[in-house]
Amino acid sequence: MTGLKTFACGAAAAFALAAAAPTAKAAECGTGDKITIAEMTWLSASSLAHITGKILAQGFGCNAEIVPGDTVPTATSMLTKSEPDIAPELWVSTAQSIWDQMMEKGNVYKANDIFASGGEEGWWIPDYVAAAHPEIKSVTDLKDNWQVFADVANPDKGRMYGCPPGWGCEIITNNLFEALGMGETYELFSPGSGANLKASIARQVTRKKPIVAYYWGPTDVIGKYNLVRLDMPAHDPDKFKCLTDKNCADPQVTGWAVGEVAVAAVSELKDKAPNVAAFLAKMQVPNAEISAVLAWGDDNKASPEEVADYFLKTYEAIWTDWVPAEVAAKVKASL
């Protein structure tokens, strides 16, 4: 996914969500064949895999199975083997060349965009800072309002928490920082790691202190700490391409592209399981709500399956729109 570090391939053993379905239920599903669902290695993707699996198994009576995956390995497998059948959160931008090959081959298609607002990257501030300082709405407002973010360690400058070293977003953030001329009034602080960045945001928000930092969404951090994304100019592909180059000679201010995050499925599902394909075509979650769900999971140290159950119990208004009423009733009865 754009700007994020590569996740290691999941090593958990695959397990079946349901045994082979009876004939009547298989007819609802459309097929008695096993339907495999990729469980990626981060909480949103793994939870969405379990949400998908529960709806297929309990609602449609499918023989659904969760299998371990990760963006590039899963995309490669879908391209070459048409397996797994479904990847509920496939970050297209991370595997763009493989995705382009899948589109050309035609064995995989995008059923929907899983996140209503797409994948979001940018610079964020807590909601209480946004409320107290309405003059700070955009990244272009930061330079002249540096005092809000001054740190005790260096009170003469504001502190901007950058992207962790080694991540793609580090180069982009560094170049954007230069393009905005923020070096005059800010220090660009490296958090050292993703865990440290998360901890820095948690520490400042817990103390109700100001912070401006790079982050991405939807994630538990956005939902848990009520972060507000600062406005940016519209995405300009040429300007952004330069921002991705550590040797960019003349960085210009532009916004991140909205991350394309697909509900990817093998094309044969349309024919052998049209009810499943219809469900996947409607499967989409609002960014704010999925961030809140992930925050609940983080607070409660919940497993992906527990997060899936929480979502299905708490956000019926969202997922019941994805399926026929009788399917929704079966899923609710199974919880």
Descriptive notes:
The protein has 335 residues and is of the alpha/beta class. The chain is 41% helix and 19% strand. The chain has helices at 23-29, 43-59, 71-81, 96-105, 127-132, 168-179, 194-206, 220-224, 237-243, 269-272, 274-282, 287-299, 304-314, 316-319, 325-334; strands at 15-16, 34-39, 63-68, 86-91, 108-113, 120-126, 150-151, 154-161, 186-189, 212-217, 227-229, 261-266. β8 (154-161), α6 (168-179) and β9 form a beta-alpha-beta unit. Residues 1-16 and 18-25 have low confidence and may be disordered.
Can you give keywords for this protein?
D-Maltodextrin-Binding Protein, domain 2, 2 domains, globular, 3-stranded mixed beta sheet, disordered N terminus, 6-stranded mixed beta sheet, 15 helices, 12 strands, alpha/beta, 335 residues
Spans of at least 5 consecutive residues with low confidence: 1-16, 18-25
Look at the structure and give the CATH class of the largest domain. Alpha Beta
- Major sheet: size, sense and barrel closure? 6 strands, mixed
Secondary structure class reads alpha/beta
Helix-strand pattern: EHEHEHEHEEHEEHEHEHEHEHHHHHH
The third-level CATH topology of the largest domain is D-Maltodextrin-Binding Protein, domain 2
Backbone shape: globular
User: Count the helices. How many?
Assistant: 15
Instruction: Indicate the radius of gyration in whole angstroms.
Output: 21 Å
Instruction: Examine the secondary-structure arrangement and name the CATH architecture of the largest domain.
Output: 3-Layer(aba) Sandwich
- How many beta-strand elements? 12
Let me know the average pLDDT.
91
Strand content: 15-25%
Helix residue percentage: 40-55%
In CATH terms, the superfamily of the largest domain is Periplasmic binding protein-like II
The total tally of domains equals: 2
Distance between the termini: 32 Å
